[in-house]
Every structure is written in structure tokens, then in C-alpha cells.
Amino acid sequence: MKIRNGFVSNSSSSSFVVSLNKISERDLKLLLSYTTLPDSDYWSISVDEQRGFVRGFTIMDNSDLSDYMREKEIDCSLFEWDYD
Question: Taking the chain, what is the end-to-end CA distance rounded to the nearest angstrom?
Fold first, then answer.
């Protein structure tokens, strides 16, 4: 498994995890609202309050979550990305 901090594009699958105590409430709301957008494709983003993190996953990274995050000024440096 390869892990890096940064953006993933044109990948067959992508995922991320970020600690709830590192992400702002504003950024969390924006991130969760991404899945309701028409172009969000197959991203699944959920909160695990018991474990204290937010997890996102897609098997078809056709939409550009990284563009959305930059546009909304979400601090992406806090995210740990895994790509395949």
C-alpha cells in the first residue's frame, strides 16, 4: 500500500482519512456536502465519531475532489491519502 499526503487524480480508487480534532467544523460540513453534488460521482464520505475520524473512499475517481477542496479552501495538508 502506498500512502502520501496530497491530491489524487485519475486513479482507479482513492481514499483518505482525517482526524476529527484536526478538521474544522466548516471544512467537515463542506466535505460531507460534496457527496450531494451532481458531479461527485462515487465518493462515500462518512464520520466515525467513536474512533474520531472522517473517512472518504471512491472506486471510480472520475470527479475531482481536490479541485472542490481547493475551491472551498479546505486544509488538505491534514488529510492522509491512499491511492491504488
Answer: 8
